[in-house]
From TrEMBL, chain A:
InterPro entries: Bact_solute-bd_prot1, SBP. Residues 1-25 form the signal peptide. The keyword Signal applies. This is ABC transporter substrate-binding protein YesO.
UniProtKB/TrEMBL annotation, chain B:
The chain crosses the membrane at residues 35-54, 97-121, 133-154, 166-186, 214-235, 269-290. The keyword Transmembrane applies. Residues 1-29 are annotated as: Disordered. Residues 98-290 form the ABC transmembrane type-1 domain. This is Maltose transport system permease protein MalG. Belongs to the binding-protein-dependent transport system permease family. Keywords: Cell membrane, Membrane, Transmembrane, Transmembrane helix, Transport. GO terms for biological process: transmembrane transport. It comes from Occultella aeris. One of its GO terms (cellular component) is plasma membrane. SUPFAM superfamilies: MetI-like.
Automatic annotation (TrEMBL), chain C:
Belongs to the binding-protein-dependent transport system permease family. This is Lactose transport system permease protein LacF. Residues 116-329 form the ABC transmembrane type-1 domain. Pfam families: BPD_transp_1 (PF00528). It is found in: Cell membrane. It comes from the Bacteria. Residues 18-27 have a biased composition (Low complexity). Keywords: Cell membrane, Membrane, Transmembrane, Transmembrane helix, Transport. Residues 1-51 are annotated as: Disordered. It comes from Occultella aeris. The chain crosses the membrane at residues 57-83, 120-141, 153-171, 203-225, 246-274, 313-333. One of its GO terms (cellular component) is plasma membrane.
Amino acid sequence: MKSTRRTHRHAPLIALTTCAALTLAACGVGGGPDDPGGGEAADPSAPIRAAWWGEDNQNQALDEAISAFTEAGGPAVSVEPQPWDGYWDKLATQVAGRDIPDVVMQAASQLPTYAGRDALLDLSEVDLDLSGLDEGIRDFGSIGDQTFGVVAATNATGFVTNADLLGELGIAAPEGEWTWDDLVAFANEVRTGSGGEAWGVQDGSGDMILFILYVRDSGREFYNDDGTINATADDLRNWFQLWADMRESGAIPPAEATAEASGNLPGSPLATGRAAASFAWTQDYVALQSVTDSALDIGLPPYNAENPSLWINAASLWSISAWSQNPQGSADLIDHLVNDPEAIETLGVSLGIPPTAAAREQLVDVVSDQERPAVEYMDLVAANSRPLNRLWPDGFADSRTLFGQLAESVAFGQMTIDEAVDAFFADAEG
Amino acid sequence: MTAPAALRTADPQGARAARARPAKRPTKRSTPLRTIAWHGLMVLICVVSIYPLLWMARSSVVPENEIFSSPSVIPSGIDLSNYPAGWVANPPGFGQFMLNSFVICVGAVLGNLIACTLAAYAFARLRFPLKGLWFTVMLGTMMLPGHVTLIPQYALFSAIDWVGTYLPLIVPKFLATDAFFIFLLVQFMRGIPRELDEAAEIDGAGRWRTFRSVMLPLTVPALATTAVFTFIWTYEDFLGPLIYLSDLNAYPVPLGLRMFVNAMGNSSYGQLFAMSLLSLLPVFVTFLLFQRKLIQGIATTGLKG
Amino acid sequence: MRSSPTLKADQTAPEATAAGRSAARVRPGGGAPSGGAARDRAGRPRRSPRQRGEARAGYLFLLPWFIGLVGLVLGPMLVSAYLSFTEYDLFNDPVWVGLDNYRTMFTDDPRYLQSLRVTFTYVLAAVPLRLAVALGLALLMNRAVRGMSFYRAVLYLPSLLGGSVAIAVLWRQLFGGEGAVNQILALVGIDGPSWISSPDTSLLTIIVLAVWQFGSPMVIFLAGLRQIPQEVLEAATVDGAGAVRRFFSVVLPLLTPLVFFNVIMQTIVAFQAFTPSFIISNGTGGPVDSTLFYTLYLYIKGFGEFEMGYASAMAWVLVAIIAVFTAVNFLGARRWVFYGDES
């Protein structure tokens, strides 16, 4: 089934397990697999493995693009498409077994963890031309002068509104420059305008990405360049208070309704017409539109032209395993997927919105009507954004999870805002 | 250990004592009214059990944006397009996934039937040194959560180059690693009166023959239970195939189903529900068939007390 | 395992003393002394050729299991035991930290204690309820009626759905703020909460789910009921026992080995419950950790936060907890479990 199994370099765990098993079998001492030590010369035509998560369209498109790559003289590639569910469990297991595929799809939130613990190859060690990528997105996979990922698709946070509902209520969605206080006013207006039938906006207090926007809105960065947190306790206190006030006034859903909708896009208040707006990623916008009859719009979150808070984000990135036996062949594959016009044509927007201007230009006519507003929105973002000062630090994913938990505790009244703020910073420092 | 006092009513003395008293007519088993009431109750319970499936069936035939809007089981209209669409999505497609599942399941069922039965017979009927220790060890292997052995196990299978094949999913069953079924079979076998196999032994039958021609036929219901559970649990196992399989062509049903749910953009819920429903069909049929076996097993072996 | 050595052969292993039947045939090993046995100088029972033959047969029948145990099961178990004394992030080699993980668990991890609370509540509520429902329905269905196998298969359906994604969606449809349950309650004028997402009731919905998936213990009970010899029941009927009395004095005692099995297994399974909370809470154990099951937290630690050493330590504490419960069950079993292979 698999043609590309190889010997494993430096796999303490395998040795340990095998030893345990062998010892138990009384088969003697010092078992364990050969340890070639990694001195082999890389063969650029050696077969490689490529893994990603994705659904049908994406799998088929990638299959086709990768076949073309092999046909054009590249190494043979065994493809490992996986469901999103369990993707990270499997990758973690493979890391422990020193057995991860050569080319791996990564997420912006996980990349720092894998890069920071030496599981990914520094791409400056291979020959890979990234000049075509948009500025700002090119450096997304970088830490210092090392690069660990090439953005495969971009996305950004947006403010999604239910145009039908707002039309009925005669309320305009915020446009142009607007502030977080305007958000409160907007939400309350929806609340009163609908006679309490609709919430203004979904509760976003637990979304750290939004808090980062909130901090950046004032011209500061959320993280210092060294990866410590630059935001202050006051920032966080004000943030939680902003949402607590809206919860109090009924402008956002109560904690139960928010919890019920978490991880359940089709059941979210926006999708079911009980909220007029929500913050969402571009891909979620497309998904939301497909599960509701109402017309949805997407626009910039609170915005000031002096300090644009938004950044173009990586929806997914391509990385190379630090243990790859064919790093150059893997790099060639990534190059093919990102830069080759034919591959761009094949992939379309199946992965998301491409990271190069050339690709977006090439694709402008082929996107579906459902996807078009998202693509157009990305152009708006491109013109009104400010790149992050650095890639997320290792531990970002954990911070983000903790942030959500604390916000939920506040919403349910199990923690005061001050306690939550203290807990967050205690964790960040400890 | 003595039998509970209450049980003695069932033994011959009890029966004899009963005969001394004026004979009572056995209570009537079923009157039409009781039968109807019984069926009514069953139908009610069935409705509660089956509601989610009805909801899934309805969700597989309505437009995507209607699925989550109501808990009703009555579709607003019927559009079957999710079935063919879901069937061919993710080539090689759902037919192949079901076939793959079937191959894995047959292997697992055979493995468990053979290996667990052998081990159970030893624990239930044979005397050998350290039996108590081994039995405790066997129970102990069930107590450790699988998540922490996943990685060492992966390392092990990876070291012998089994990753990417069905071997890590099937071979362990032939080595009786499913202690659940050993324990289950032990409990069943212990319920069988010892006189039966002792009689065979006195006749000169060896251990193996006693096991094969006395014990096995008497354990048919338990074997059927083992087969059904192994089939079903293997059929719906997600984590094992996820970790050990990487080639889409080799994916079984649970992996195939999750491919409909995507984190980045559209999830095809309609197709997901359509295929979920379809994938339950073989299991349901298996269950229905083995149910009969379960009953027949008893009827034909005619257990004597 | 090492924590459950009290399970001696005479309770667990299914060896009846069968004293009256074969005084000469002494059970070797297992610990419990047997009267009248010939013993060698070291005090061990001397084995006759016949016994040796039986011992050989025992080990032969166990051979596949031994191979699996040594080759596949023990190795990973020992590795995880070793890892529980280390800090191990999957990426780097494990670093020995002694008992730190175990200490942290009980002194410096409120979420761990919460996961214990959630799990114990779940075990104590779900196991008895599920078994009662399973036994009740098995009795209800233990009769020869046309369509029986169909009913039985239908009743097994909820268990077939297992951990499918559909369950998560469905449970929200049923127990959400505007779910079916509240719609029914509204008919009688009660304004129910969002059962699934209120921290006070979210665990309850998962217990309901566990009870609703009563299929596997039911099937086991049913198979057990089918194994009860008809003659015994008839004798009791002749004896004048009514249905209730027949159940308590005949059926239930004969069913005890399987009741016992189900209690043991369902307890073990419930302590390790993972999937229901994982799919319903979307992997978070929320809201506010109200459904943070033990193994879910273990999984979050091991695979989410890459603290596999800590997760392994948690796993071994769970083994100890389960072992205690199992041992207590086995000790108690002496009083109420009746085996057909005993006189």
